[in-house]
Amino acid sequence: MSKLVLNNVVSVKHNGDLTVEQVINIARQMRPRSMAKKLEGTVKEILGTAQSVGCTVNGQHPHDIVDAIRSGDIVIPED
Question: What is the total count of domains within the chain?
């Protein structure tokens, strides 16, 4: 696990649920390592990881959040 993510994980108490704002913040931190052209793509990568480890986002399955991003219900800022 990267040191950047590990530092955030250690200091945060977990309940298995993230907010969209937290996902966007993580995506901004991971952006230099991502091959995605836009921050939106990096957010989707993070949501895929959240799905893999069993996290929820705003109490919903991460794939539902991806669907909301694709439909335009959730707008991810450019940077």
Answer: 1
